[in-house]
Predict the 3D structure of the following.
Amino acid sequence: MNTTTTIIDIGQDFSRYPAGRYKTDGPFSGEIFRAQFLVPVLDNNEHAIIELDGTAGYGSSFLEEAFGGLVRLGYSSAQIKTAVTLHSEDPSLLEEIEEYILDAEQG
C-alpha cells in the first residue's frame, strides 16, 4: 500500500482562529475542519501530519468535535492513530486531543 502523507497546518490551511463546534458556530468550526480535512484522509487511506501550532489557540469544543467527532462517525481510535499524526510544541494539547478521541470511543 502506497500511503500519501500530507501536512495540514491548521493555522495556514484552515484558520488562525479556529473556533466553535458546529457549522452554525461559524466558518472555522471543528465540524467543518473534520469534514474538509480529516475525513478525506481517513476515507482515502492516507496519512496526515496535523500541525497544531500557529493558531491563536483552540477551544475545547473545536478540538472535541474535530477529533472526537471522528469516532462518532464510525472511525476507531486505532484508525485515527494510523492516519493522523498530531504535532505541537505543547504536549498538553496532544494529550487533550487523545483524551477526546478515547472518551468518544468509550461513549
